[in-house]
């Protein structure tokens, strides 16, 4: 025979709302934290987009990175192949004075600093792509500008490339013979969601922005 006390306990609906809340709370937290993470993710993507824009705007009015100021000094070694800034396609590249430099004579140059060591790579570049103090400072300045708007970014994440644009002319006495299209890219950035207590990270999409070089001499 069932005890009256047990029957009263079985029929009691006291604290029913608390039990229902306990059931709903996990689902509510999942939606809440998920919504916050979506907003944080969109914000981080927007930071990266704006950071590449600002980095490109600085890069196009900064010193040229490939080759820096190598070969620019009148007292330097005449046997040294100049960097992009001071290389003359008219004197050394067999391009007629005043003519646009053909695309075939200007390979895309990519500059990056994996592991903190800056280097520029290109296929068969006629000019030097070595790194001097001027080139390092120019790259560091762009990285710093990018980091202002995307704090997750450092030198490992920034890639700066120089591509033929069709602008400029051989033998330009006032700057580089080519005014390349400069692209600043951000890659390899990670995003850690609050959801699941940050157990895992996943990558932010790569971002890039391009402008045509305006100065090249800082």
From TrEMBL:
The keyword Transmembrane applies. InterPro entries: TadE-like_dom. The keyword Membrane applies. It holds the Pfam family TadE. Residues 16-57 form the TadE-like domain. It comes from the Bacteria. The chain crosses the membrane at residues 21-43. Keywords: Membrane, Transmembrane, Transmembrane helix. This is Pilus assembly protein. The lineage of its organism: Bacteria, Pseudomonadati, Pseudomonadota, Alphaproteobacteria, Sphingomonadales.
């Amino acid at each position: 025979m069932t005890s009256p006390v047990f029957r009263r306990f079985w029929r009691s609906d006291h604290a029913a709302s608390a039990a229902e809340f306990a059931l709903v709370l996990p689902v509510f937290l999942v939606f809440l934290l998920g919504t916050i993470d979506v907003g944080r993710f969109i914000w981080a993507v927007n930071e990266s987009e704006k950071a590449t824009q600002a980095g490109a705007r600085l890069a196009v009015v900064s010193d040229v990175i490939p080759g820096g100021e190598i070969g620019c000094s009148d007292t330097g070694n005449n046997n040294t192949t100049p960097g992009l800034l001071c290389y003359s396609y008219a004197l050394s590249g067999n391009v007629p004075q005043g003519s646009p430099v053909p695309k075939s004579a200007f390979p895309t140059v990519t500059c990056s600093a994996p592991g903190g060591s800056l280097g520029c790579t290109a296929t068969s570049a006629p000019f030097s792509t070595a790194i001097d103090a001027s080139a390092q400072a120019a790259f560091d300045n762009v990285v710093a500008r990018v980091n202002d708007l995307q704090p997750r970014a450092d030198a490992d994440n920034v890639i700066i490339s120089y591509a033929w644009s069709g602008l400029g002319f051989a033998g330009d006495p006032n700057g580089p013979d080519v005014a390349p299209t400069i692209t600043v890219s951000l890659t390899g950035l990670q995003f850690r969601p609050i959801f699941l207590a940050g157990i895992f990270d996943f990558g932010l999409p790569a971002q890039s922005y391009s402008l045509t070089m305006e100065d090249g001499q800082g």
